[in-house]
Structures are given as structure tokens and as C-alpha cells.
Design brief:
Growth Hormone, Chain: A; 409 residues; mainly alpha
Length: 409
């Protein structure tokens, strides 16, 4: 079995690489808010600073795109095939990278933000199920390492930004590079082999096994909703820490990105070890958000650059280090014969968070000005606490069947 799976390792590499570039797409616009705002004709605030709220709104449009696409992306992955879903996602990302740097209207940029989310949807419903099928004995860990690919990209991004700046090149170079490599990766996805999907179809030549009916228990619903709360915690921090850093006196807040990415990378590696040693995913779904809440409150109460460096590392570890992926794996365990659908449900919740919460953050930025970064922290704390409550429900009721299980389960 192991030897037969080795032929899929290049496929796994191509899929993880797509998530590496996705990691750049998730955070790069937040690093160039003033540049994009100027390109789209933003006005200046009374303080003289460029109003970047429209850029936050475009970043939020990513969530709207995910919300639109997930109901279709899951069935495409389950019914038509992982390869098709993956190719669509990677190809759309190439279009996004080339397109976003060539628009001069906020509304066209908004459409590109939606496209970013659609691309993410098709990648998610391809990659999570695929790597779990390539590495069936370590499915949760394999899925967790998709987050590792993202965090490595987000760690390297500030260095790439610095390199481009020191060479006096346009920030657009990074986008062009990402677009080119995504075109190459799309070609690889078309020609590399994919494993057989884990579906329950035929009992023997004459009898078909009845497909399990999907049944939503309270725990299954709570697991899906963790997609909303866990995404809120890291997406707000990832896209709004720049303004918070400036308000606390950090001259180059992009450095916070590196601390965040280091924390997330360490978390993926350590969490994989914890799961390997028998720690339950549901325990981590409670522990990590609890750490995030404590750290967010410290960042609110202590107004110093030092606490933000520590906070970026800790939020990276506890919020961006795989909680969303573990929520996805947990939800898939409720619906083992509908992995693409299960992934879609969690990611729909994540997409709603991305759109609704970041849109709220954009509104707060516009109407409250300098007070917005700290108000956004409080918003983050409240939603993360709700996530802890949902995780407790999942842990308490995980043993209850959420679906009529297939014979293999």
C-alpha cells in the first residue's frame, strides 16, 4: 500500500505548493494597502493618511467569493473529481495575481477579490480531501500540513517584499512571479496522477451499498461553525495588525508578519507531533483559541511594541497554526463519505467570517479612525470566546454519531 501511494507524492507536492502560493495571496494585499488604495483612487483622511478602508473591503470580498463558490466546489470535487476542482482553483489564482495589479477601479478590484475567494474554494475542496486520501494513515496530519505550506509562505513574504524594495522594483513583481508559478502548477495538476476517491458505491457486482444519509447533530453543526470563529481570529489579526502596530509605535509593522508566520509554522509542526502522540483534535480546538483570547486581551491592555511582537507570534501559533484545518478534519469525520461536502461546509462558515467580519473591520476603520485597531481587538476576543464554547460542545458530544456511518466506519 505504501509503495503504491508513493506515485502520488509528486501530486501531493504540487498540491502543497498551490497552498504555499495561496498563503501569499491571503496576506499580500494587507502589506500593500496604501499602494492599492492610491491605484484605485482613494481619498485622504483628515489626518493626511490615505484611506485604506477600500482595500480592507476588497480583502473582505475574498470571503464573499468563497461563500459563492463553496456550494459548487464541494460537489465538483466529490462528483467530477479532485483534479478538476484543483485545476480550476489554481487557474483562477493565476488570473487573480495577474489581474489585481492591472486594475484602477475599486469595483473591478472588488471583483478580483471575489475571484480570489472562488479560487480558494476550489483549491480547498480539492487539496484537503486529496492529501487525506494520499496519506490515509495520517489524514489529520496530512491536512494540517496544508497550513504548514501557507505559514512558510507568509514567513518568507516579508523577506521577498524587502528584497523587491531594496532592488528598487515594483511590488507588482511579486504578483507576476506568483501568477507564473501558478500557471506551471496548473499544468502539473493536469498531468499528475490522483488517488481513487474514497467513496462508498458498490458492495459487490449485484448489490449497491446504500449511500449514508447525512445527519447533522449538534456537535457536527458546532464543528462546522468553528470554521467561522477560527477564521475570524487569524484573519482579523493578519489583515489589521499593520494599523495596530503603527498606533503602538512600530515603525515597520510588516515585521509582525514574520513573528506571526514563525508562530504558525512552529504550531503546525508541534501540533502534528501532539496528534501523533494521541492528543485529541477536539482538545486542541479548545486549548488554542483559549490561548488566543488571553493574548488578544494582553494586546488590548498593554500598549507597547513589545507586546505586539509577542502577540503576533502567539496568535500565529494558537490561531493560525491549524485550528481551521483541524476543524475541517473533525467535520470530515462526521461525514466520511462526503469529504468534499464536509470541507465546503466548514469553509462556507469560514467565508462568512472572512466577508462579514472584515467588512465590519473596514467599517470600523472608516468611522472610528485611530480607535479602530483596538475596537477590532475586542471584536476578535468576543468571536474567539464563542469558538471555545463551540469546541467544548464538539468535545463533549464527539462520541455521538453524526451520520449513519458506512460499513467501514
Amino acid at each position: 500500500m505504501v509503495n503504491s501511494q508513493k506515485k502520488y507524492y509528486p501530486t501531493a507536492f504540487a498540491l502543497y505548493f498551490a497552498y504555499f502560493i495561496l498563503g501569499i495571496a491571503l496576506s499580500i494585499m494587507g502589506q500593500f494597502k496604501p499602494e492599492f488604495a492610491q491605484a484605485w483612487g482613494a481619498t485622504r483622511l483628515p489626518s493626511g493618511a490615505i484611506d485604506v478602508s477600500m482595500v480592507v473591503s476588497v480583502i473582505a470580498a475574498y470571503g464573499l467569493g468563497r461563500l459563492i463558490a463553496y456550494p459548487f466546489a464541494g460537489p465538483v470535487s466529490d462528483k467530477i473529481g479532485r483534479r478538476v476542482s484543483g485545476f480550476i482553483g489554481i487557474a483562477l489564482y493565476a488570473i487573480f495575481f495577474f489581474g489585481i495589479i492591472n486594475v484602477h477601479s475599486m469595483w473591478i478590484a472588488y471583483a478580483m477579490g471575489v475571484l480570489n475567494g472562488v479560487a480558494n474554494s476550489f483549491l480547498d475542496t480539492c487539496i484537503s480531501p486529496s492529501v487525506m486520501e494520499i496519506f490515509p494513515k495520517s489524514a489529520s496530519i496530512a491536512n494540517l500540513f496544508t497550513k504548514f505550506a501557507i505559514t512558510i509562505a507568509q514567513f518568507l513574504l516579508p523577506f521577498a517584499i524587502g528584497l523587491v524594495a531594496s532592488a528598487h522594483m515594483s511590488y507588482k513583481v511579486i504578483f507576476i512571479f506568483c501568477g507564473v508559478v501558478m500557471v506551471i502548477d496548473a499544468i502539473l495538476i493536469l498531468i499528475l496522477p490522483f488517488p481513487q476517491q474514497n467513496v462508498v458505491n458498490v458492495q459487490d457486482d449485484t448489490k449497491k451499498t446504500k449511500q449514508p444519509k447525512i445527519h447533522f447533530s449538534g456537535a457536527a453543526i458546532a464543528s462546522i461553525l468553528i470554521g467561522f470563529t477560527s477564521s475570524t481570529t487569524f484573519m482579523i489579526w493578519l489583515n489589521c495588525n499593520q494599523e495596530l502596530g503603527k498606533s503602538y509605535g512600530i515603525s515597520d509593522p510588516s515585521v509582525l508578519q514574520s513573528f506571526y508566520a514563525v508562530g504558525a509554522t512552529i504550531a503546525v509542526l508541534l501540533t502534528a507531533q501532539l496528534i501523533h502522540k494521541g492528543i485529541k483534535e477536539t482538545t486542541i480546538l479548545i486549548l488554542y483559541p483559549s490561548i488566543s483570547v488571553v493574548m488578544l486581551l494582553l494586546c488590548y491592555l498593554i500598549e507597547s511594541p513589545f507586546i505586539l511582537y509577542v502577540g503576533s507570534f502567539v496568535i500565529g501559533y494558537a490561531a493560525a497554526g491549524g485550528v481551521l484545518k483541524l476543524a475541517t478534519s473533525t467535520t470530515i469525520s462526521f461525514f466520511p463519505s462526503n469529504k468534499g461536502l464536509a470541507t465546503s461546509l466548514v469553509m462556507i462558515a469560514s467565508a462568512i467570517a472572512n466577508y462579514a467580519v472584515l467588512s465590519t473591520a473596514a467599517y470600523l476603520t472608516k468611522v472610528t479612525g485611530t480607535d479602530a485597531p483596538r475596537m477590532i481587538i475586542i471584536l476578535n476576543v468576543i468571536i474567539t470566546i464563542i469558538g471555545i464554547g463551540l469546541a467544548i460542545i464538539v468535545k463533549r458530544h464527539k462520541s455521538e454519531p453524526a451520520v449513519v456511518a458506512s460499513p467501514e466506519n
